[in-house]
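Morning F.,

Quick status update on the modeling queue. The single chain you submitted on Monday has been processed. Sequence for confirmation:
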Amino acid sequence: MRRARSITPGNEETRQKTLETWLILAVSFGALFLVAFGSPDVRQHETDFLSFYSGARLVGTPHLYSLQHAREIQTQVSHPEGVLAYVRLPFYAAVLWPLGQLPYVTALSLWLTLNIAGLAGFIWLWTPRLTSVLLCCWFFPVWLNFGSGQDVPLMLCAVALGSWLLSRDKPYLAGLAFALCSAKFHLFFLLPVFLLARRLWRCTAGFGTGGALLLVLSFLAGGRNWPLDFYSTIHTTGILDVSAKMPNLYGLLHGLPLAGGWIAILSLLVVGATWYAVRRMPLRDALAVAVAGGLLVSLHAYLYDCALLLPLLLVLEDRLGWSKLVKIFIAISLASLTLPLPSVSWIGQVCVIALFTSAIYMAWRSGAGSLARPSPGSSGRTRSVPSGK
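Structure tokens below.
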């Protein structure tokens, strides 16, 4: 006779936890799929992906930044109220070229799926735990990213990949991964501050090499006049005009007397504070601060770009615990809802600044004894207390 398999309390508890894990994963990512493929803009084919699709179709021609040619492509696949110009660097259009060869609906579906995979990759590489899944999948800016057809999850995945490679003592490859963030370079101005403050020279070399290769690819894909065309398109489309909705210093201070001067002064303070924090925090925490600081000093950002706050929120979870982090998470999520409303958008902008300031406070609390210094003979690796690994 076969002996009946015994069920111990330990086995039952493990089975229950496994079931809960899969249930949370299914519900969280299922919600993302519903948001991504069920939002009105996606179903009506009127997302920002129209601009990426136009770029993918026009790359290699002299018309990459042509509003007229973009309009011709977009009116064939949708009925947008206005033309969405391609306003990224040419190399990104070259990377997206395969999507431009597909029917628009197929390309859009693949694009949304790639971004969901990018968010999953970020979670897996940064902090692979269930609380990370809950924070990332239920963060309102992430939902808006998918509803708008944007690509912030792909940038988060590149940041996490660079951090993961650094932790495995592969600084040059990490720099190459960080270079991919130049697809949205205006949001990552403080990445060089992170690299230089930590004296990650090999990583800096990889970052410079990757940037140079992408620049060469941009000239190959966009022609020698693409910088002038790019500059002209940005100013023609008035991409910096909707400043009140931006979750940064530019959005908060626009319209004030001497706004340009105040923005410059406070941006320098953010850069200095980032340098201070990066020198005193563990490597991954320092990277999260640099990413959040880059959002603050940017001149072009929208609500969905607040998804770049996720690395810092996950760092705060490590420092404060889940119960305290949930309150901060809810507050940031609710505050972000005010950003599209010019009369109260300052609430969301101040909350972003407060979150960044809390990270600087943590760095200050860590004390001068945790100042990161390069190890003797190292070329990119650092030691710190707490450890920079």
